[in-house]
Amino acid sequence: MGLIYTTKGEIERSLLTEEVEFKANDQEYVVKRRLYLQGELVREDAHVIKKPEAMTVEAAAVAAALA
Amino acid sequence: MANSQAMCTSFKNELLLAQHQFGSATISTRGSLTSPSADSFKAALYVATGSLGAGTTAYSATNEVSGTNYTAGGVAVTNATAPTTSGTTAFWTPSASIVYANVTLSTAFDAVLIYNSTQSNRAVSVHTFGSQTVTAGTFTLTMPTNDASNALIRIA
Question: B41-47 and A3-6: which strand pairing?
Answer without folding.
Answer: unpaired
